[in-house]
Structures are given as structure tokens and as C-alpha cells.
Amino acid sequence: MHNDIEKVLYAQDQVNQRLDELANTLTEKYQDQFPLIVPVMTGAMMFTSEMMKRLNLKLNVDYIDVASYAENSESTGKVKLIQDLSHNIKDRPVIIMEDIIDTGHTLKYLAQLFADRGAKSIEICSLLDKPARREVDVEADYVGFKVPNEFIVGYGLDFNGLYRNLPFVGVLKRSVYER
């Protein structure tokens, strides 16, 4: 698996340090607000789990699963809701946790969905941001790292369901995903 990685962008210790910083910021802001944390599954699972350990505040967590990618590396641009929330978000602050902002279609869809449902506030916290691929106007409120326009895996990000368990963020070799 490690042989498929062209280079490591952010080692585990760098990711941990940045998560500590993000969690401190969120803890301070949401201390008395009881937010709902909403990871976009499955990619944000690892990021959200690690962030929740660091958040020193009362919160709920609920999951949403959407798809905008076909069985290859290209976004379809259309978002499909696969699993919806079980919590009522009306008048609740919502923090969407995302692994990477790429085209932006998923987050634009979710932000509008949650706004339509009456969320008190909606903020986005993403481990990674890839602005070179943005197709719609959406920005995260909190970002761990900006990444280049390369195929990124590790720390929850995958290619065909693989590489999510890598403890770092890396670039997948082109030869792997162009097979």
C-alpha cells in the first residue's frame, strides 16, 4: 500500500498538530452552543473521530452520506443523498466535517439542505481544501491544509475504497489510478 504513494504531503504529527489548533478554535467558539457535528461519510470518519476527541464541549454527532463521484476519480457534479440525518437541526448550530473540499458540489448541497431545514448556523470544517478544483462557490470556515491539484489519499481519503487507513495525507501515484 505504501508503495502506491508518490509523496507524503502531511505526516501524522503535522496532522495531529493542526487538528489540535482547529479543535481549540472550535471549542472556544462553540463552548456554550451545543452544536451538532455532521461528518460527511465515509471520508470524514477519521478526521471527525480525531477532532471529537479534542473538542472540549457538549455536542451531538449525526451522520450524513452523500455521493458525487462515480466509480472513478471524477466528480459527477450531481449529489445524491444516501443516508440522511436522524436529528432535527432546526435552531441548532451545525458543523459539517469534511475530509476534502474539491469541486464544492457536496458542501454547497449540504449547506443549502441544512439551511432549508432551519439550522441556526452552518459552518464547514475540512481537513483539506483543494481550491484548484472548485466548480461552485463554497469555502470552509476552518481548514486544516490546502493541497495541490493531485490525487490525495490517506487519513480518510480513498481511491476505490482503499488507502483511508493511512495515518498521513499523501499523493497517490498516477499509475495506480490510471490503470
Give the helices and strands, then pairings.
Elements (H helix, E strand, L loop, with lengths): L4 E6 L1 H19 L5 E6 L3 H10 L5 E2 L2 E6 L5 E9 L9 E9 L3 H12 L4 E9 L12 E5 L5 E2 L15 E4 L1 H4 L2
Parallel strand pairs: 2-3, 2-4, 2-6, 6-7, 7-8
Antiparallel strand pairs: 1-10, 4-5, 9-10
How would you characterize the overall build of this protein?
- The protein is an alpha/beta fold and 179 residues long.
- The chain has one domain: Rossmann fold, CATH 3.40.50.2020.
- It is 25% helix and 32% strand.
- The protein has helices at 12-30, 45-54, 105-116, 174-177, and strands at 5-10, 36-41, 60-61, 64-69, 75-83, 93-101, 121-129, 142-146, 152-153, 169-172.
- Strands 2, 3, 4, 5, 6, 7 and 8 form a 7-stranded mixed beta sheet that branches. A 3-stranded antiparallel beta sheet has the order 1-10-9.
- Helix 1 packs across helix 2 (45-54).
- The longest helix is centred in the N-terminal third of the chain and has 19 residues, at 12-30.
- It is globular.
- The two termini are 15 Å apart.
- The mean pLDDT is 94.
- Pathway: Purine metabolism; IMP biosynthesis via salvage pathway; IMP from hypoxanthine: step 1/1; Purine metabolism; GMP biosynthesis via salvage pathway; GMP from guanine: step 1/1.
- Its cofactor is Mg(2+).
- It comes from Limosilactobacillus agrestis.
